[in-house]
Write a structure and sequence with these properties.
6-stranded parallel β-sheet; 4-stranded parallel β-sheet; 8 helices; alpha/beta
């Protein structure tokens, strides 16, 4: 090929490591720098060194938020090779009917992987004691790593499993608020999809989510991994 586009950390590691094997131009989109992942000091140092070295082997680096752009500069990626292209969505959402969700309580939707990065465990802690006030639906399932959710979830929580995009939009149309308790986030596309439907978003103040929510001007931000703040 003339050009190879490597999307996300694993693909970026493989493709950029093989740079000497071919003459193809390499475009890399981190979609969340590995250095932002919540891990131990040794892993974070390894990620920083790896990203600095591998940055030398990509011709262009496409970042999806100002947070990623600034992090790229901190890692030593030259501005001439950094290109900021924020994620975008269609102006109009899919034409689907709202999902059935008949409940007098506040209807709270979580849409995403049930993995450590997305912080669903933080949400489950936050809802304890609010069972009579809120109804929570989890749209998604485990995709990366093992299942770390407790066997018995709060009585107000319903797990929907994987849904296709139209069904997710249908759930969004019925909810009162979307919550994104992520530990790290390159952008936060689900938040934009909810805001397109005029749904308020409560999100942790990390990465690109701060830009999407406008530092709290266009939604609710709470400190990352702070289940008590989310509870309030």
């Amino acid at each position: 090929p003339d050009v190879v586009h490597a999307h996300s950390s694993i693909a970026g590691l493989v493709v950029r490591s093989l740079r000497t094997a071919g003459m193809a131009k390499i475009a890399f989109c981190p979609h969340g720098w590995s250095v932002d992942m919540k891990s131990g000091p040794a892993m974070r140092l390894f990620a920083q060194v790896s990203e600095r070295v591998l940055a030398l082997f990509s011709d262009e680096t496409i970042v999806i938020s100002r947070h990623e752009f600034d992090r790229g500069r901190q890692l030593g990626v030259g501005e001439s090779r950094l290109h900021l292209i924020p994620n975008g969505i269609a102006t109009e959402p899919p034409d689907v009917e709202p999902a059935e969700w008949n409940d007098k309580r506040l209807k709270v939707l979580y849409a995403g992987r049930l993995d450590r990065q997305k912080g669903v465990d933080i949400l489950l802690k936050a809802v304890v004691g609010l069972e009579d006030k809120i109804s929570v639906r989890l749209a998604g399932d485990v995709a990366v790593g093992s299942n770390f959710l407790q066997d018995e979830m709060p009585s107000c929580v319903e797990k929907l499993g994987w849904l296709d995009r139209k069904d997710v939009i249908a759930q969004m149309k019925s909810c009162d608020v979307l919550v994104m308790p992520s530990r790290w986030e390159g952008f936060g596309l689900v938040a934009v999809e909810a805001m397109r439907l005029a749904k308020p978003v409560a999100a942790s103040a990390v990465g690109g989510l701060r830009e999407v929510i406008g530092n709290g001007d266009c939604g609710f931000l709470f400190p990352p991994e702070d289940d008590r703040a989310l509870h309030e």
